[in-house]
Design brief:
The chain has 357 residues and is α/β, with parallel strands linked by helices. It has two domains: 195 residues, D-Maltodextrin-Binding Protein, domain 2 (3-Layer(aba) Sandwich), CATH 3.40.190; 147 residues, D-Maltodextrin-Binding Protein, domain 2. Helices cover 43% and strands 14% of the residues. The protein contains 15 helices and nine strands. β1, α2 and β2 form a beta-alpha-beta unit. It starts with a helix and ends with a helix. The structure holds pentane-1,5-diamine (N2P). The site of pentane-1,5-diamine has 9 residues, from β9.
Length: 357
């Protein structure tokens, strides 16, 4: 009898532990189901009012988590143990996710609002016919600077960043592809360079930028630059537009050697538990009025043609943030460089960060 009681206690304890573990994982990894929708997005990349409205409209509860680089997002998703329903990766990351079988094809019959997307952003090489992805925001990567602090320097080139008078004045985004990319671009090499000699040369050149680098940071870069904590930032265009919205003394330039033009897209990962809800969410974000509100809030450039009609001209006619095809055609899109090269870029970036210490 005693044995039966002991067994009962063990079984009870195990069941309790399992229940506890499940609820812990639910909270930590955003496990979702039919009445929830788990979204994994870049930080500061959606108007929170739209989330509330979507919840009200559909009765779904949104669980929201953020990442700050494609690499961090890829690591988390490919390690498994998450059930995100909607994710917003960039171009080359989508090609990697496809390669790893991490995406579910979209059901376009459930996305009638996709017709508002500018065809210029459709059928991209990383996802022919938009089988898996729908454009969300796009932009460039360049230099934002405060002319009042740096008075006589006129920024036109990546190489202007190396000017010795800019000691401790530059903020960089904590992202491998971007920082290694600026080293490569300053040498007029491709952003998709795979030649080890050229990559090492770019890294050595970046090491020489170290005295001018004040910090390597995340989304706080916007607040730091708007508050004039540094004179220069190397940022994504949408962040620049938001910073300039807060402090119009600053200006943004696409350096003459060229830069990256990127496109972030909404996808549904393989592990999604609410594919129906994910389609509803994508279609909701594609609604032109919602897309326009999201654009005004986030500050990035919308690929939604119809949304442009709801936005003030001072936004849509600003060529710093809505450059024409004649400019974007000269810029480079990141390619998926494969596992080994990606690790090599990450390694170089880590070495560069160590060099600063
Ligand atoms: C938003 C970052 C956008 C990333 N904070 C550009 N791909």
């Amino acid at each position: 009898m005693k044995k039966v009681a002991q067994m009962f206690i063990v079984v009870f304890a195990a069941a309790f532990a399992l229940m506890y573990l499940t609820s812990y994982l639910n909270a930590r990894h955003g496990y979702s189901g039919a009445d929830t929708l788990t979204i994994y997005n870049w930080g500061d990349y959606i108007d929170p009012d739209l989330i509330v409205e979507f919840e009200r409209e559909t009765g779904l509860k949104i669980i929201y988590q953020t990442f700050d680089s494609n690499e961090a997002m890829l690591t988390k998703i490919s390690h498994g143990g998450t059930t995100f329903d909607v994710v917003i990766p960039s171009d080359y990351a989508i090609s990697k996710m496809k390669e790893q079988g991490l995406l579910i094809p979209l059901d376009h019959s459930k996305l009638p609002n996709a017709k508002y997307i500018d065809p210029r952003f459709l059928d991209m090489p990383f996802d022919d016919e938009n089988e898996y992805s729908i454009p969300y925001f796009w932009g460039t990567y360049g230099i934002i600077y405060n002319p009042e602090i740096i008075n006589d320097i006129e920024f036109t080139s990546w190489n202007d960043l190396w000017n010795p008078s800019l000691r401790n004045e530059i903020l960089l985004i904590d992202s491998a592809r971007e920082v290694i990319g600026l080293g490569l671009n300053s040498l007029c090499y491709s952003l998709n360079e795979i030649d080890i000699g050229r990559l090492r040369e770019a890294k050595q050149k970046l090491d020489r930028l170290t005295p001018n680098v004040k910090a390597i940071v995340g989304d706080e870069i916007k607040m730091l630059l708007a508050n004039e904590e540094a004179a220069i930032g190397v940022v994504w265009s949408g962040d620049a537009s938001e910073i300039i919205g807060d402090n119009d003394k600053l200006d943004y330039v696409i350096p003459e050697e060229g830069t990256n033009v990127w496109l972030d897209n909404i996808v549904i990962p393989k592990t999604a538990k609410n594919v129906e809800g994910a389609h509803k969410f994508i279609n909701f974000m594609l609604d032109p009025e919602n897309a326009a509100r999201n654009t005004e809030y986030v500050g990035y450039s919308t690929p939604n043609m119809k949304a442009l009609e709801y936005l003030p001209e001072e936004i849509t006619e600003d060529e710093r943030f809505y450059p024409g095809v004649e400019v974007t055609d000269t810029l480079e899109v990141y390619e998926n460089l494969g596992k080994r090269m990606t690790s090599y870029y990450n390694e170089l970036f880590l070495e560069f960060k160590m060099h600063r210490k």
